[in-house]
Amino acid sequence: MAFPNSATGYFCLEGDNRVQTSPPIAIVMGSQSDWPTMRFAAETLDALKIDYEARIVSAHRTPHRMVSFATNAREEGFQVIIAGAGGAAHLPGMIASMTTLPVFGVPVESKALRGEDSLLSIVQMPGGVPVGTLAIGKPGAINAALLAASVLSLMDEDLAERLADWRARQTDSVPEFPRDND
Ligand code: RP5
Predict the structure, then answer these.
(1) Which tens digits make up the pLDDT trace of 82-129?
(2) CA of 30, closest atom in ligand 1
(3) For residue 10, which of 24, 74, 127, 133 sits 20 to 30 Å off, Cα-Cα?
(4) Is any ligand 1 atom within 6 A of the Cβ of residue 105?
């Protein structure tokens, strides 16, 4: 696995100065309890050899951290944000309100309402502040990573090839005929 919390050694040149910047993707989540879901986004990015940084940023418990992250994300060097949250899942929408980077929202499955609350909290954004909302739970986390990869692949031919290979391997892994499990 790559580096969920890396100082990854990304640099850009500002004049003659080499300045540290962030990896292309930020995976943020409202709580440590979201990581078992959001790690599927991380693992998918690992498989595609895309670097990322994972952070806990709660809209409700650490609102100042959220504002600081969202307002600085583009300047820090992030290009796409994947944001996962459960329950009253304001995080993706609040982040989207403070950045023009693409934000993909992952509704984390909640205990009380199995993630339907998370989904509805994330998906019903007012016109003008978009969050690309994925499915509840693991499939949403995986697809958020794949969509983020698609965005980055527009400017990165090597990544476009890795993404096509990933999809081809998935296709190859599907048997044509079912078999008994035992
Ligand atoms: C949300 O509340 C988090 O995104 C998480 O899904 C949910 C529950 O958080 P914990 O009480 O488990 O920390 O903010």
Answers:
(1) 999 999 999 999 999 999 999 999 999 999 999 999 999 999 999 999
(2) 4
(3) 133
(4) no
Pairing of strands 52-56, 25-29: parallel
Domain layout of the chain by residue ranges: 10-172
33 is in an annotated binding site: no
Q: How many angstroms is it from 23 CA to the middle of ligand 1? A: 25
Architecture of domain 10-172: 3-Layer(aba) Sandwich (3.40)
Quick count: other Cβ atoms within 10 Å of Cβ 79? 17
Residue 6 annotated in ligand binding: no
Q: Each residue of 22-77: pLDDT tens digit?
A: 999 999 999 999 999 999 999 999 999 999 999 999 999 999 999 999 999 999 99
Q: State the alpha helices, DSSP H only, in 32-156.
A: 35-47, 63-76, 91-96, 116-123, 138-153
117 CB less than 6 Å from ligand 1? Answer: no
Q: How many residues are present in the chain?
A: 182
Question: What is the interface pTM, i.e. ipTM, of the complex?
Answer: 0.97
